[in-house]
Design goal:
This protein has about 425 residues and is of the alpha+beta class. The strands form six sheets. Strands 15, 16, 17, 18, 19, 20 and 23 form a seven-stranded antiparallel β-sheet that branches. The N and C termini lie far apart (about 45 Å). The protein has eight helices and 23 strands. The longest helix is centred in the first third of the chain and has 14 residues.
Length: about 425
């Protein structure tokens, strides 16, 4: 048996209850981190993954978070039986580690407020769950694809956990020269299956696994526990390292959203502290609020470029389905002709050419004005991530810009996000 202890009330460096991000991981119920503004907090955190050293917060005694503090009587849960490890604990549970898991997703909406909620940065990356089993580990995408070989930086994750079996949920991110998460940089790594090439790219563009949930720990299914307790357990068993970190929690969602807007981040995710984890569901217990409007879109064709883009793709023709998982009609949402790097313009034809078809996948077909230079249709199998200004009155994307392809999203699941 172990206690779900409050890491702010006990523990020294090197003990189970301490990690360098503790002050960031649990914020007091104020707008400041010991007089450090949230904006500075974000800047320090964002610099960390790129520079890769453990993040040490230069502050004195820590204060308990009003949201995550458990009082004097900690909740007791069945505890895992752990392998020999400097931070190991006794105990074992009866639940088997699942073979696969589709992660819980956040619903779009307005920013909720109140003491029942905690807030995190919405990381601009790729969702990934990590299975650890007797010293072996497997990284799985949200589409249940094994992507372990693409991320050699995470090779030491299993050894870092004081457990024979564990299941983590988080986001893989890459950062730009300013330390901000960049999906464009990450997608250059997402499709690499060759181990040697993955290692080479890892040296050039390292990633960080930002972990925000713990779903299983040595024989204990934790999904029914409230987030408040799951997060305390996560803080106790995972020490941050250059290749993985804990996603900081914040009490003031409005301040975090303002800081995310100032830092030009993707947005904020609000999570109910008393909610369990719902695998495979898009739940209102998690609420995403985006700073920049983003949308996943299915590629249904392309039109050739002109001028400096002659002989290349000029714009992608994209659309969305009504209901996730059912396919159905693909509704045309517009053309996307900006945001492509030179390397992506070279890569895309090799992915689209094998999908070429004589049949238009959109229902109804796009207006002729959008096909002035003639369209090449493709089977609707590839998913692109786009940024855009707004939806127009005729259900088109206004000022869309291409960010990259998403290998972690099935085309049949792409719907319009309001």
């Amino acid at each position: 048996m172990i206690s779900v202890r409050d890491p702010h009330h006990e523990g020294e460096r090197g003990s189970l209850t301490h990690h360098p991000c503790a002050d960031l991981g649990h914020r007091p119920g104020t707008d400041t981190l010991h007089d450090q503004p949230i904006t500075d907090d974000l800047e320090a955190y964002l610099r960390g993954p790129r520079l890769a050293p453990p993040l040490v917060v230069p502050h004195g005694a820590r204060q308990p978070s009003k949201r995550t503090g458990g009082g004097d009587k900690p909740r007791i849960v069945n505890a895992p039986g752990l392998n020999p490890h400097p931070r190991s604990l006794p105990g074992v549970g009866p639940d088997r580690l699942p073979r696969t898991l589709v992660p819980m997703k956040a619903a779009s909406g307005d920013l909720p407020t109140g003491e029942d909620w905690t807030y995190e940065v919405k990381w601009d990356g790729m969702r990934a769950v990590a299975f650890v089993d007797n010293g072996m580990q497997r990284i799985q995408s949200s589409t249940e694809r094994d992507v372990t070989g693409s991320w050699p930086e995470l090779a030491g994750l299993a050894a870092a956990l004081p457990a024979a079996a564990a299941l983590l949920d988080g986001e893989l991110i890459a950062t730009d020269d300013q330390g901000r998460p960049s999906f464009g940089l990450l997608q250059q790594r997402m499709h690499i299956a060759n181990h040697a090439e993955a290692a080479r790219r890892a040296a050039e563009q390292p990633i960080v696994y930002v972990v925000f949930d713990l779903l299983h720990l040595d024989g204990n299914d934790l999904t029914s526990l409230p987030l408040r307790d799951r997060r305390r357990l996560l803080d106790q068993v995972l020490e941050p390292a250059p290749a993985w970190r804990l996603s900081p929690l914040h009490d003031d969602g409005e301040a975090l959203l303002a800081a995310a807007r100032e830092q030009r981040l993707e947005g904020v995710v609000a999570k109910r502290l008393d909610a369990g984890y719902e695998p495979g569901r898009r739940s209102g217990a998690w609420r995403k609020v985006k700073v920049r409007r983003r949308q996943e879109m299915v590629i249904g064709g392309w039109i050739p470029g002109e001028g400096g883009r002659a002989g290349q793709i000029g714009a992608l023709l994209v659309g969305y389905h009504d209901t996730a998982g059912e396919g159905g009609p693909l509704h045309f949402a517009g053309r996307v002709g900006t945001g492509f790097t030179d390397a992506e313009l070279i890569r895309l034809p090799g992915l689209l050419d094998p999908l070429t078809t004589d049949r238009c996948p959109f229902d109804p077909p796009p207006p002729r004005a959008d096909l002035a230079r003639g369209a090449t249709w493709v089977r609707p199998e590839l998913v692109a991530e786009l940024a855009f200004a707004e939806w127009t009155s005729d259900d088109r994307l206004r000022h869309p810009s291409y960010l990259g392809l998403r290998s972690d999203k099935a085309a049949v699941d792409v719907t319009r996000a309001e």
